[in-house]
Amino acid sequence: GQATPEYVSWSAMKRRCYNPSYHDYHRYGGRGISVCQRWRRSFVNFLEDMGAKPFPEATIHRIDNDGNYEKSNCKWATTGEQARTKCTNRLISFNGETLCITDWAEKLGTDETTLSRRLASGWTIENTLTTPPLPRDLTGVAQLITHDGVTLSVRGWARRVGIDNMTLGRRLKKGWTVENA
After folding, report:
1. Beta pairing class for 150-153 and 144-147
2. Three-state SS for 66?
3. Quick one: which of 8, 53, 101, 173 could link to 58 by a disulfide (CB 3.0–4.6 Å)?
4. What are the residues whose beta carbons fall under 8 Å from the beta carbon of 95, sequence distance 6 or more?
């Protein structure tokens, strides 16, 4: 028969903590995270304590990221909740508020990837958090710009005229004409 989603989560939890050849072992068992005896010995006990997944994408989440897998420290969670407690998570302080990148993205109505890429490419925290994302059309595709009969994305135009696409994007956001940008 096929394993239930809960059984798959239970097996993966044990693998992270007890299989040194698992690719992420260093972030779990390798740093002392373990599964309580009650759960390690019995899937039935695990299911009794955790219950069925409340929604298909639910993942087992340790409330205290440095704590073990046990009833008092675990719940079913969304991947967004998971990301907020990852030990690799980066906290960003701006205007007296400190949030992780997931929460900033949610608050600003943008995505984490945009914010991460900006920071990785040397943007200041202020510019990263205050620059709106490039306008996109309804299909989610970056807006195209037509100039002199040629239609390209902002990135395409930047490449064509030999300037940084972030510079071009900022100029357009500030209201520059396509010609001047």
Report:
1. antiparallel
2. coil
3. 53
4. none
